[in-house]
Amino acid sequence: MLRLRQPVGDITQGVIWKQLLGFFFPLWLGTFFQQLYNTVDTVVVGQFVGKEALAAVGSTGVIVNLTVGIFTGLSSGAVVLIAQHYGARRVDRVHNSVHTAMTLAVLIGAFFMVAGFLITPWALTMMGTTAEAMPGAVLYLRVYFLGMIPNVIYNMGTGVLRAVGDAKRPLYFLIAASVCNIILDLLLVLVFHLDVLGVAIATVCSQVLSAALVVLSLMRAVGSPIQLSLRELRLRRKPFADIMRVGVPTALQSVMYSSSNIVIQAFINSFGTDAVAAWTAYSKMDVIFWMTLTAMSQAVTTFAGQNCGAGRYDRMRRCVWVSAGMTACLAVFISGTLFLFARPILAIFSPDDAVLAVGVEMVRFLTPFYITYILVELLCGAIRGAGKSLVPMLISVFGVCGLRLLWLFTVAQAHHTIIVVMASYPITWTITSLALLLYYRFGHWLTPREDVPAPAQALERAAE
User: Fold this and answer.
1) Which of 49, 107, 321, 383 has its CA 20 to 30 A from that of 114?
2) What is the per-residue pLDDT across 332-345, written as a single tens digit (0 to 9) for each?
3) 373-400 CB burial, b ≥16 within 10 A, e <16
4) Model pTM greater than 0.90?
């Protein structure tokens, strides 16, 4: 029987802020390389192939982001389940959950591979892809979908590693994949002149590499409850149900966020080319804030999961406010920097004076409100770590997506200005934060369960 003799990734004891930062920095760097990984294809075709190829690859971005959001959401179910069992020192349940999660990754990847390949032309047509970009877009997306199985395996496998406190190896794997993607992009486009097909093949090869590294690391975890054995890969009813219970609402939340952003983009498009260019440049600027918030939210989810499993509910609650304090400081710093240096930063993406004027207006309106959103991610992350994701999802979807759409199709229709459209962000962020805060304070999301050990019992198991 496997025993957790040395819980290297144990975060049920120790200084909370140090442990959160120990998770945060690798996750932040990982998100940075993920952004790099996703933009290299666009840069290479834009610089070395032409605008038709750039349009082809760029037009697939919404679908790619949508699928990645679904996989990340589903993998969060595995993170929470494994982190809870790991915190409770239930090594057999960790072992079963890992094998269920990895089996699920293969099945989900196979489904999306076949379904995505078949519906690609229809999906691109529904999005209004131009006739010039359509052939390249279909080619790129179909090759991308052929790499779905390694894509999902990577997301699920890194979730397993994060659940047991290992945030560094997923970062190393992502760096390796990013370097591989860059090298293959340049080789296949500049040397072999494969154009859009070349960048698509490079992306899939990078996904295969990252998946292989994750699987190899899990198979070599000898003596650990997360050690992967190919012979034991199968769906187990209870872990499968628990993963889906947390993962499906999280994935749906990601889908709804993406959908509301598509509507925002449509409204921005109505203001003309300068507004679209300014919005594009601004979105490249504010990614630094969303990277920071996403990394902290993921750290909180893992921290909450392990401490919930160990029965350390006091540490869960302290974690929320410690992370909120740190994130608020980071949000103020990022907001201030972007506000003060809006024009020179925007000029990196566009030197056009008209675009810069609109972009500066956008930046200086939205950045002071960043702080109103941080509780949405942090509270959702903590509550999700306790295994309760449905209610936070409903609150977030209604507040961030539902109210935003209501604002856009009523107020923004009557008062058609860029500022009114953008006002949908701080208004919905504030309302959703308050709603989640009320649920966090008064909702029964942290009811102790009978199968969760007391803290002392959990620590005794660690010493066995």
Assistant:
1) 49
2) 999 999 999 999 98
3) bbbbbbbbbbbbbbbbbebbbbbbbbbb
4) no
